[in-house]
Amino acid sequence: MAEENKENIESNNKGNGDIVTLKNLTKRFGDYVVLDEISLGIEKGKTTVVIGPSGCGKTVLIKHLLVLLRPSGGEVYFKGQRIDNLPEQELNKVRMQYGFLFQGGALFDSLSVVGNVTFPIVQHYEITDWKKVEELVASKLAMVGLDGFQNYYPANLSGGQRKRVALARAIALSPEVILYDEPTTGLDPIRSDIINELILKLQRELGVTTVVVTHDMTSAYKIADRIIMLHHGKIIADGDADHIRNHPHPIVQQFINGQVGEDDLAVLRASGTLTQSQFLPRDFKE
Predict the structure, then answer these.
(1) Where does 106-257 have alpha helices with state H?
(2) 258 φ, ψ to 5°?
(3) To bridge 103 with a disulfide, which of 3, 13, 182, 258 should be the other Cys (CB 3.0-4.6 Å)?
C-alpha cells in the first residue's frame, strides 16, 4: 500500500498537466493533525473526486487548493506558482481562477438570482455596461437550466434549484478550476443526478478542472476520472473507479460499501443497562 501511494504521488508530481500541486501539505488545528504531509497533483481538465469518512479532512483539503486555509506545513502551487505564501491581495487574483460550490449553496437570501450570480462580478470589476452583464448572467443560468429565473429569490427555489444557482455563480468569472463541496447532499436521487450531469457538462463544454468532495459513491463513480480516499489525514487509495471498487484495503471497502466496522459494531451491540423505571409527567409536579 505504501509503495502504491508513493508511486501515485511521484507520478502526479511530475508536473505533466497538473494545474494544482500540493507538496507535503500538513494542516493542524492545535494538536490535532487533519492533513498529514499530503503530496498530490490535480490534472488539468480532469475530474478528481475526494472521498472519505466525516472528519477526515476532505473539505479542509480543497480549501487549501485556493488557500482559503493556510497550511501548517508544506506548499501549494497553481500553474507552477507557489501561492500559499502570497499576501491576500495577490491571492485574490489567483482565486478568480477558481469557482467554489459550497455544500449548502451559500446563496444570499436578500439577493435575487441575478444578484447572486452577479455578486462575484461586482466584487472584482467596475461595471460599465449592465446589458453585457445581463447577457452573461443569462448564459450562465442557461448552462444550469435556469435562464428565466433571474428575478426569483432563494426562498422561492427548491433545494436543487438553489444548488444550480450557486453553480451559475461559481462559473460567473469563467474559472479554470471548479471546487464542489458535497454537491449532492440533501438532494433526492433524481436531483442529485442533475447535479452530476451538470458537473460532467461543465467539464466537457468549458474544459474546466474539477475537484469534488463527496460521500455519494454513485456520484463519485459517475463523474470521476480519478478518486482519492482520505483516512486519518493521509491518502490511502488513489485511482479510477474500477481501482477503487476493487481496492484491497478493508477501510476502503467498508466506506464504499457503507459497512460498519467490527469495532463500531461491538460497541453498538454491547448490552447496556436499562433503567427499571420511567419518569412520568407527574414525577415533576410539585
Answers:
(1) 113-124, 130-143, 159-170, 189-206, 217-223, 241-245, 250-256
(2) 65, 40
(3) 182
Instruction: Report CA dihedral (260, 36, 106, 82) to the nearest 10 degrees.
Output: -150
Provide the angle, in degrees to the nearest 10, between the axes of the packed helices 113-124 and 130-143: 120
Closest CA to 219 of 229, 230, 227: 227
> In the chain, at which residue ranges do the beta strands (DSSP E only) sit?
18-29, 32-43, 47-51, 73-78, 81-82, 98-101, 177-181, 209-213, 226-231, 234-239
185 phi, psi to nearest 5 deg? -60, 130
CA torsion, points 199, 200, 205, 207, in degrees to nearest 10? 80
Q: How confident is the model at residue 282 (pLDDT cuts 50, 70, 90)?
A: low
The whole model's pTM is what? 0.83
The 73-78 sheet, strands edge to edge: 32-43, 18-29, 73-78, 81-82
Query: Which run of H or E residues covers position 88?
Result: helix 88-95
* Measured distance CA(51)–CA(15) in Å, rounded: 23
For 60, 199, 283, the CA distances from 206, given in Å and listed in that order, are 26, 10, 66
Q: What tens digit of pLDDT does each residue of 38-81 get?
A: 999 999 999 999 999 888 889 999 999 999 999 999 999 999 99
Crossing angle between the packed helical segments 159-170 and 189-206, to the nearest 10 degrees: 20
CB 80 within 8 A of CB 15: yes
